[in-house]
Amino acid sequence: MPALRVAFFGTPEFAVPTLSRLIDAGFPVVAAVTQPDRPRGRGQKASAGPVKSLAVERGIPVLQPERLRHEDFLGALGETAPDIGVVAAYGKILPEPVLTLPRLGLVNVHASLLPRWRGASPVHRAVMAGDPETGVSIMRIVKALDAGAVFAMARRAIGPEETADVVERDLAVLGADLLLDVLASIERGDATETPQDPAGVTYAPLLTKEEGRLDWSQPAVTLHNRIRGLHPWPHAFTFLDGARVIVLRSRPPEPAAVSHGAPGEVLGIDRDHVEVATGGGTLRLSQLQAEGRRALPAREFAAGARLAPGARFGS
After folding, report:
1. pLDDT (tens digit, 9 = 90+) per residue, 156-187?
2. How far apart are CA 127 and CA 170, in angstroms?
3. Structural domains in the chain, sorted by start
4. What is the pLDDT of residues 4-31, one digit of tens each?
């Protein structure tokens, strides 16, 4: 059985496979540090996040500090005597007192091929940028944002129609498996750490709702990548007759497609798509949702909205 005592830091669904694999592999998880319960769902009632739910189910002590520098939290974490900290999408920057508490420091399961996409939204940014592949990096946590040396990486291709949630789900499992290999090497004392190349650094800031606004003067491929990169939140959106319309799915534009309409103009409606002119090529929308309504296939949406060629989506 592994001897390293692990303090785990994580909050959303992405972190669940890592915590689960640590427990199943026999690592003594001495604490699960997760963010305080937040209002969730339509009723906006405070409820536990995915990591807390799993920790409670598996009998792991839970710590939910509002402030990571608070003496009560640091004291409680110190009493668990962790050898190492493992972070997977915790959601807050860890201060120096936390970084120095475990004797072997902390490692992070980060969903990108570092140094590309340091920051809070690496999967979404990779998809939005049209990256053909991404991956997961196990890195040492240092003061600077996602700047620590990398222990190991695993790669995953991004399909041209894949959305960010699908890619992120796979990376969560990939990262959990990779982490176990890294922890085993740390325990043996033969782990290697490779510094990141500063020349390759890009950043992935938090997503904002306004980023979902589609600018139809952009090329079709740019809009397609934005639509799938912002799925399932905050979603891409546009306007039709002044009403907000959420664009949930689109198809990759044909490489040689040429648009013959004004940006945002509906060019045609077939069984599966609403074809819209852009600043470069034609974008095929396959699923849309009127504000406050359910998501619909493109043809059903077009029928309900009485959409016809010549109508125009606005930014």
Report:
1. 999 999 999 999 999 999 999 999 999 999 99
2. 14
3. 6-204 (3.40.50.170), 209-305 (3.10.25.10)
4. 999 999 999 999 999 999 999 999 999 9
> What amino acid is encoded at 121 in this protein?
S
Spell out the residues 6+ positions from residue 226 whose beta carbon is closer than 8 angstroms to its own: 128, 211, 212, 214, 236
Residue 210, Cα to own-chain centre: how many angstroms? 17
End-to-end CA distance of the chain: 57
For the chain, the DSSP string reads -----EEEEE-SGGGHHHHHHHHHTT--EEEEE-PPPEEETTTTEEE--HHHHHHHHHT--EE--S-TT-HHHHHHHHHT--SEEEEES--SPPPHHHHTSSTT-EEEEESSSTTTTEES-HHHHHHHTT-SEEEEEEEE--SSTT-SPEEEEEEEE--TT--HHHHHHHHHHHHHHHHHHHHHHHHHT----B---GGG--EEPPP-GGGGB--TTSBHHHHHHHHHHTTTTT-EEEEETTEEEEEEEEEPPPTT----S-TTBEEEE-SS-EEEE-SBSEEEEEEEEETTS--EEHHHHHHHHT--TT-B-B-
Which among 282, 277, 256 is positioned nearest to 266, based on CA atoms? 277
Q: Which residues fall within 8 angstroms of residue 23, CB to CB, at 6 or more apart? A: 29, 58, 60
